[in-house]
Amino acid sequence: MRYWLFKSEPFKWSWEMQKAKGAAGQEWDGVRNYQARNNMRTMQIGDRGFFYHSNEGKEIVGIVEVCELAHPDSTTDDPRWECVDIRALRDLPRPVTLAEVKAEPRLADMSLVTSMRLSVQPVTEEEWRIVCAMGGLPEGA
DNA sequence: GCCAACGTTGGC
DNA sequence: GCCAACGTTGGC
Fold first, then answer.
1. How far apart are CA A20 and CA A29, in angstroms?
2. Gene3D superfamilies, alphabetically (predicted)?
3. CA atoms of A131 and A110, how far apart (whole Å)
4. Rounded to the nearest 10 degrees, how much is the dihedral formed by the CA atoms of A80, A121, A44, A63?
5. What is the CATH number of the domain that holds A23?
6. Does a structural domain hold residue A140?
């Protein structure tokens, strides 16, 4: 299993909206960046991801799971753009802020810090464990 | 609201 | 295929 991070501006698509979709999940549409798309193409069913609120909040708020492999993005006719579906699994008991991530030396190489603008990012297993622990999930998610 | 970073576009 | 112009993202 691999780990990822999905960024969204809460104005456009918030964690609350994601959770409201329940187990059915939701297409992660609107991505128009090759690197982010390529990341989604490599995702497998059951991969886990963090849900991050950019702009407002600037914190990791929840855990999601990939529930549909990459497929054409229904919001465009442009065949270049694909996306996966994800569903909310659980809240982070304590949201982990960007400031906390930046303050943690072991997370210095995390994409959230080094590739600030990438909207779908890979997360290493070590980074996953550290952030889960910081977020109040010492057993992992 | 500003602005730096950076990805994309398009002229040559 | 280079690179300047432009648009967008996202932290502050």
1. 17
2. ph1033 like domains
3. 10
4. -130
5. 3.10.590.10
6. no
| Strand B closer than 7 A to residue A117 Cβ | yes
- The C-alpha angle A98, A104, A106, rounded to 5 degrees, equals 120
User: Is A110 part of any domain?
Assistant: yes
pLDDT in tens, A15-54: 999 999 999 999 999 999 999 999 999 999 999 999 999 9
Domains in chain A, number: 1
Identify the segments of chain A with pLDDT beneath 50. Answer: none
CA→C1' distance for A118 and C1 (Å): 26
A133 CA, C4 C1': separation in Å?
46
Q: Is the CB of A78 under 7 A from strand B?
A: no
Task: Indicate whether this model's pTM tops 0.85.
Answer: yes
Structure tokens at A41: 């193409």
Q: Is residue A24 part of a domain?
A: yes
* Nearest nucleotide (CA of A33 to C1'): B7
- Between CA A114 and C1' C8 the distance (Å) reads 18
- For nucleotide C11, give the residue with the nearest CA to its C1': A55
Could you tell me the residue range of the domain that residue A110 belongs to? 3-134
